[in-house]
Amino acid sequence: MKKKHNWSILIGAAFLMASSAIGPGFLTQTAVFTEQLGASFAFVILLSIILDAIAQLNIWRIIAVADQPAQDIANKVFPGAGYFLSFLVFLGGLAFNIGNIAGAGLGLNVLFGISIAQGAMISAIIAIGIFVYKEAGKAMDAFAKTMGLLKIGLALYIAYVSDPPIAEALVKSVNPTQFSFSAVLTIVGGTVGGYITFSGAHRLLDARQTGIDNLPAVNKGALSAIGLASVMRLLLFIAALGVVSTGAKLNPENPAASVFQLASGQFGYKVFGLVIWAAGISSVVGSAYTSISFIKSFHPTILKLNPAITIVFILISFLIFILIGKPVKILLAVGAINGLILPIALGVMLIAAYRSKIIATYKQPLWLTISGLAVVITMIWMGYGTIIQLFKDY
């Protein structure tokens, strides 16, 4: 019997993934690389969208058909691979969450003048409240949708008032004059790397929106998530391009805030506060939810204590932030690290697509496998290029 699609959950999963991607690091990365590459960053964004979509489609489809979380699938492909993948994703999620907490705290600091530490504490309490709430799944879906739409709407306004050179960006999107390996690695890693691509897929598992019958809906959910994140990336890019094309210099301490402030004065600065708070708090929710989903299947006790462990995860992120302060550079570094995790995760999923004990009678489309393999090779190549460049710079 064909399953009935729950579109509210599918859209919620898409927004959860997109909101997980559109965090403070996302804002920072976009501003930094726009200033470095100018209109040529449009080519990097276009390339990253293609890579993101291929990776996400493969991973979401395989998880949905296997009806198992990624770590269990990985353990069936290679014994112990699931534990290794979980370790990478969990640490990456924790590192990102420190930046997410910091970003949310900065947002409330900009909006209300309270200290960043106080803003971070209030934001952590709000995120914890979502998980304490009895209908946490529904609350998370509704929250992700609301924050996602808010961020896109505000970014659209700033993109409009910055008066960007759209024609130049369109030309450079297919004929760039500058290119950066690290930009592609960081942007892809910050969109579908690490825990991010799994956030929506694991949400579908929890909501039981899985199986071959659900694949058309899973496809739409996966592509919608990439579409939402890409729209936000493009809006932030053209907003930043409008600012830097005038010759203005972004503040290296907070380049994303500079974009909003230079585009629209003090009002723009307040808009930035709201955007980075929405980005930070929604990414805290997505990161905590997905990071814990990677360990909860390992032992019944972890599954039973899932809400409590999620709360502790958020609290630890907050405490580490209080100890070390706002790690602006880490937001860029973790995006690149997540980009290095992606070929490992995607590679394991592609192998799983050809193990009948995992996917039963499902036949993975050949074009998805070939394009997925191309993404794995490309990300390894980009990672190698980035590491070589780092050694040269050092």
UniProtKB/TrEMBL annotation:
Please list which residues make up the signal peptide: none
Membrane topology type: Multi-pass membrane protein
Localization, UniProt: Membrane
List the InterPro entries hit by this protein, alphabetically. NRAMP_fam
GO CC aspect terms: membrane
**Which keywords does the record carry?**
Membrane, Transmembrane, Transmembrane helix
Source taxon at top rank:
Bacteria
GO molecular function per UniProt: metal ion transmembrane transporter activity
Q: Where are the transmembrane segments?
A: 37-60, 81-104, 110-133, 142-160, 180-201, 222-247, 267-290, 302-324, 330-354, 366-391
Q: What is this protein called?
A: Mn2+ and Fe2+ transporters of the NRAMP family
